[in-house]
Amino acid sequence: GLSKSLGLIEGYGGRGKGGLPATLSPAEEEKAKGPHEKYGYNSYLSEKISLDRSIPDYRPTKCKELKFSEELPQISIIFIFVNEALSVILRSVHSAVNHTPTHLLKEIILVDDNSDEEELKAPLEEYVHKRYPGLVKVVRNRKREGLIRARIEGWKVATGQVTGFFDAHVEFTAGWAEPVLSRIQENRKRVILPSIDNIKQDTFEVQRYENSAHGYSWELWCMYISPPKDWWDAGDPSLPIRSVPSTRSSGFFVPR
Questions:
Q1: What is the pLDDT of residues 96-142, one digit of tens each?
Q2: In the chain, fewer beta carbons within 10 Å around the N or the C end?
Q3: What is the DSSP letter of 203?
Q4: Which residues make beta-bridge pairs with 224?
Q5: According to the model, what pLDDT value does residue 60 have?
Q6: CB count, 10 Å around CB of 105?
Q7: What is the CATH number of domain 4-59+69-255?
Q8: Strand (E) positions, the chain?
Q9: Which of these, 74, 51, 75, 78, lies nearest to 137 by C-alpha position?
């Protein structure tokens, strides 16, 4: 009932199920034009897609077979947003809850960097506090701080042993958390980035990206590059990738 009051949908079926492209009728397409220009993605279509929709598990078979300790550190997931579509934010939250083992998820922290959209104020808070009581916290910045300072505000209230920072337009696949937390448990100085697939902005289709190394240029731009030859030669896609990166841009993210 909570999602219906916001005009949103829950459950694993419906449009976009399985990460397939979602579509609108001709009449709906006309209604979608304004919101699409406002957000840079099809927010009207997003409202027609379930907050819990199923998406593909693109992990290599060997990754799915890995076993991890039950005694892994807990993670605080921090989402940063400013005037993001409510349906997209809530799908990020639902996806994190649905695909992170309960004993590993300490909390979800939503950091609002001074949004002025009314639906991101009381409606958002009332929903997450009733739907996930005690699990989701909302932090409000009184003025626009920018991405990095907003992340720091989220970190200040986090209580998990590990903090994970994400944009508020992501969907998680099963098994994303265990390898991340396992490698941090081995060495607490590590900064880990999972493999990232793409969600198309017009259809919300989930698009698989090949495994790649990640890092930053000297200008601190996020960079991607094909894994080095010795990684491919090892024939084990579950191994971490370490390399000198180069450029590729991306938008919506699906951590796996």
A1: 999 999 999 999 999 999 999 999 999 999 999 999 999 999 999 99
A2: N
A3: T
A4: 214
A5: 87
A6: 18
A7: 3.90.550.10
A8: 75-81, 105-112, 136-140, 162-167, 196-199, 206-207, 213-216, 222-225, 252-255
A9: 78
